[in-house]
Amino acid sequence: VQVVESGGGLVQPGGSLRLSCAASGFTFSSYAMSWYRQAPGKERELVARTNRFGGSTYYTDPVKGRFTISRDNTKNTVYLQMNSLKFEDTAVYYCYVANYWGQGTQVTVAS
């Protein structure tokens, strides 16, 4: 199983980023997919989750209305569109599926 995130970077407050997570080694459409994040000195927290076909999603309250999780089962990829980014969104963002974690991608929001 491989889980590989990409798309992180440095962005100004109010900006946008789209994270991607490409997974392989299992039947992608059989599993819910999740994004977590971990800020310095804090515990890892669930940010968003989508069910197997993308028809049901969950968001933690701080990102509701700003982040959108989606998936493309034909590409074995899940996305996290992040808009109106805030300083407090700075963290390493991880993709999680079927008890596997990606290596994480750094998102830094700074002016």
Secondary structure elements and pairings:
Layout: E1 2-6, E2 9-11, E3 17-24, E4 33-38, E5 45-50, E6 57-59, E7 67-72, E8 77-82, E9 91-97, E10 100-101, E11 105-109
Parallel strand pairs: 2-11
Antiparallel strand pairs: 1-3, 3-8, 4-5, 4-9, 5-6, 7-8, 9-10, 9-11
Largest sheet: 7 strands, mixed
Structural shape: globular
Number of helices: 0
Any low-confidence stretches, pLDDT <50, length ≥5?
Answer: none
Order of helices and strands: EEEEEEEEEEE
Share in helix: under 10%
| Strand elements, count | 11
> Radius of gyration from the CA trace?
13 Å
| Straight-line distance between termini | 37 Å
**Class from secondary-structure proportions:** mainly beta
Kindly estimate the percentage of residues that lie in beta strands according to DSSP: over 45%
Mean pLDDT: 97
What does this structure look like?
This protein is mostly beta strands and 111 residues long. The chain has no helices and eleven strands. Strands 2, 4, 5, 6, 9, 10 and 11 form a seven-stranded mixed beta sheet that branches. Strands 1-3-8-7 form a four-stranded antiparallel beta sheet, with no helix packed on it. The radius of gyration is 13 Å and the shape is globular.
